[in-house]
Amino acid sequence: MANNKLYKGSLSTIILRLLEENERMYGYEICQKVKELTDGELIVTEGALYPALHKLEGDGFLRVEYQEVDGRTRKYYLLTESGLKETAHKMDELQAFVQQMQQLLDLKPGIG
Q: PANTHER family per the record (predicted)?
């Protein structure tokens, strides 16, 4: 996908928003959900996902729960209280950015 670089800078925001909507998710599930929501246009690799998850956890925005599933331990990620606040902040930031980009790109010929 040509605009993967645009998404890379937004990966933390994507993760936070998905966890806000789904309460708790494990890594593979996050990758699959992104793929599903973008009709396969955006593929989040484990190499990109797990460092982002670990950073968010280290920053105190995520906590981890372990659950036994089919004889294997699955690691689930959940938002903390500060993670919920960070999600709201990131969504406000993103909305403002999109509005600014629309203003810049909706210029009519001959203006300015």
A: PADR-FAMILY TRANSCRIPTIONAL REGULATOR (PTHR33169), TRANSCRIPTIONAL REGULATOR RV3488 (PTHR33169:SF14)
